[in-house]
């Protein structure tokens, strides 16, 4: 099972809950990138730009086992090769959807997310990505609900 969605949609939190609920291991793509590169995410962006980060993200994704619950990073769908990999994994792809103001409030002060700058640029990213999340996912859930409701909804949809 793969979780996708914008920054702040709760992918990591929901992956942990689903993992506990289903007795399955979880993997967090951002964490795996940090482990394999030995750099924090803002360091990768500073040294290699977003392009460098996307290439690392793709390489890590390609090497991951398929049977885990996978929490991705919010921009994974913007790189066509990574999007294709996700779809080829032949797993349910769950899109955690929330409105922009809710997401922005959750992420605005996070220093660990290099793409969170001024509100307008984050809004533009959100708008550019909406269709990508929808066309990549097999299931869409409302990420503004309580975590328990989200998990229930995902379980029912399987
Ligand atoms: C990104 C989202 C981040 C992380 C990186 C880029 C994005 O993950 O991969 O900062 O492009 O939206 P989260 O969605 O877990 O914050």
Summed up, what is this model?
Helix content is 57%, strand content 11%. It is built from 7 helices and 5 strands. The longest helix has 23 residues, at 41-63.
CATH topology: Rossmann fold
How big is the Rg?
15 Å
Q: CATH homologous superfamily, by name?
A: P-loop containing nucleotide triphosphate hydrolases
Task: Quickly give the CATH architecture.
Answer: 3-Layer(aba) Sandwich
What structural class results from the helix and strand content?
A: alpha/beta
Which kinds of small molecule does this entry bind, naming each only once? shikimate-3-phosphate
Largest sheet: 5 strands, parallel
Spatially, the strands of the biggest sheet line up as 2-3-1-4-5
Distance between the termini: 10 Å
Assembly state here? single chain
Q: What is the CATH class?
A: Alpha Beta
Order of helices and strands: EHEHHEHEHHEH
Measured by DSSP, the beta-strand proportion falls in 5-15%
Could you name the ranges where pLDDT drops below 50 across 5 or more consecutive residues? none
Mean pLDDT: 96
The number of domains is 1
The backbone outline, from C-alpha atoms, is: globular
Q: How helix-rich are the residues, as a percent range?
A: 55-70%
Number of helices: 7
How many strands in all? 5
Pathway: Metabolic intermediate biosynthesis; chorismate biosynthesis; chorismate from D-erythrose 4-phosphate and phosphoenolpyruvate: step 5/7
Pfam family, one: SKI
GO molecular function: kinase activity
Subunit structure: Monomer.
């Amino acid at each position: 099972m793969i979780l996708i969605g914008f920054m702040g949609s709760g992918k990591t939190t929901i992956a942990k809950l689903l993992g506990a609920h289903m007795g399955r291991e979880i993997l967090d793509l951002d964490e795996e990138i940090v482990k394999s590169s030995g750099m924090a995410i803002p360091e990768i962006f500073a040294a290699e730009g977003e392009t460098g980060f996307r290439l690392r993200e793709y390489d890590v994704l390609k090497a991951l086992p398929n049977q885990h619950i996978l929490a991705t990073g919010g921009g994974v769908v913007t790189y066509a090769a990574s999007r294709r990999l996700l779809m080829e994994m032949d797993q349910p792809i769950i899109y955690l959807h929330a409105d922009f103001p809710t997401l922005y409030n959750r992420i605005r002060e996070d220093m660990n997310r290099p793409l969170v700058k001024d509100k307008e640029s984050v809004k533009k990213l959100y708008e550019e990505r909406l269709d990508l999340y929808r066309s990549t996912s097999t299931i869409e859930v409302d990420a503004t609900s309580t975590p328990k409701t989200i998990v229930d909804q995902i379980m029912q949809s399987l």
